[in-house]
Amino acid sequence: MPFALYLLGLAVFAQGTSEFMLSGLGPDIARDLQVSIPAAGSLTSAFAVGMVVGAPLMAVVSRRWSRRRALLLFLVTFLVVHVVGALTTSYAVLLVTRVVGALANAGFLAVALVTAVAMVDRTKTGRATSALLGGVTMACVVGVPAGAVLGQVWGWRSAFWAVALVSVPAVFAILRAVPSSSAAPTAGAAGGVRARAEFRALREPRLLVTLVLGALVNGATFCTFTYLSPLVTSVTGLGTVWVPVMLALFGVGSFVGVTAGGRIADVRPVPLLVAGGLALVAGWVVLAVTAGSPAAVTVLVLVQGALSFAVGSTLISQALYAATGAPTLAGGFATAALNVGAAAGPWCGGLALAAGHGFRAPVWVSAALVALALTTAGAAATTATVRGARVGA
């Protein structure tokens, strides 16, 4: 893999840390800003909503820019809003910074996905995608637990300052690693025609199903991950010192999953998705049932992190494979689909909590979302088989 691809991963690391870190900071934010835990959890949903809207929107807006210019603009914006978030004492302002930061993150990731795929041979799309998303998993391994520790020692604002500081070297890395002419601007009527052609290509049934599956699987991941801190402390009975440990375990699992998934996704994606999906839904069910056992939770957090990211990263690479007619917008729509899940997951988990079902409820919601994904995949496969038989007849 080109070294420049890993430098893009450095920026994704900073952004992934920001996106995930509220799972360890939610209770502190709730106390400091005098809001409920579900309201603090909605900051994660707000970030995800910004990603959903921003991914295709920013992909379209940045089509006329060079990739380096787009990446730099999005990353600098992301850095600035984290400084504002670290300084504010208002929940409303913090909510706005999460949305704006998400728009910038969405634009960056959409462009970075396309840039990463362009750096390698098409047969290595899965590996390129997993290398870039390695920044997200390293955020889970290092960034999120470190943010939780910073939050416990110096308050949640210190984690926002840390994300801003980590983004600084990523800016210089992009200046050095990504050529200024890495994408030719497309303007005028020709650009409009090409954009419409790409939107039409995004209607392809295989691509749409893949995007839906990605949204459901990612929704399951974020649903439990967002409320992992209160699950560990209130249900499992571990002290707050164990929260960074559990977050790190999830991150280690996710790194293993995305690395292995990237290597398998280019050669045997369907077996990985079927076996991984079945194991994933079973794992969420077992976690919900055994959440009171520290030993079981420790193992399952690691395993579920691996399965979630192995399946999730494979779905991203399959979406990029399926979107051959939309080379510019593919990354944006893949990012948007995953963050539909990232928005819906915590929201559904918050509803279950607000209904008084306890901190196991988000885990049950995760199991239901993956089960729905498996059902959807099965229905799509059956429909495709029937259509093929009719055509053959």
Could you describe the 3D structure shown?
The chain has about 400 residues and is mainly α. The protein is about 85% helix and about 0% strand. It is built from 15 helices and no strands. Helix 9 runs antiparallel to helix 13. The longest helix is centred in the last third of the chain and has 32 residues, at about 360-390. About 60% of the residues are buried.
Keywords for this entry:
mainly alpha; single chain; 393 residues; globular; 15 helices
Write a brief structural summary.
The protein has helices at 3-20, 22-33, 37-61, 67-87, 91-118, 125-154, 156-177, 188-201, 205-226, 228-235, 242-265, 269-289, 294-322, 330-354, 361-392.
Lay out the secondary structure.
Elements: H1 3-20, H2 22-33, H3 37-61, H4 67-87, H5 91-118, H6 125-154, H7 156-177, H8 188-201, H9 205-226, H10 228-235, H11 242-265, H12 269-289, H13 294-322, H14 330-354, H15 361-392
Which percent range describes the beta-strand content? Answer: under 5%
Structural class by SSE content: mainly alpha
Distance between the termini: 46 Å
- The parts where pLDDT drops under 50 for at least 5 residues are 184-190
Query: How does the major sheet shape up?
Result: none
- Determine the number of helices (DSSP H or I, runs of at least 4 residues): 15
Instruction: Bin the helical content.
Output: over 70%
The SSE string, one letter per element, is: HHHHHHHHHHHHHHH
Query: How many whole angstroms does the radius of gyration measure?
Result: 20 Å
State mean pLDDT (0 to 100 scale): 82
Sum up the overall morphology in one term.
globular
Number of strands: 0
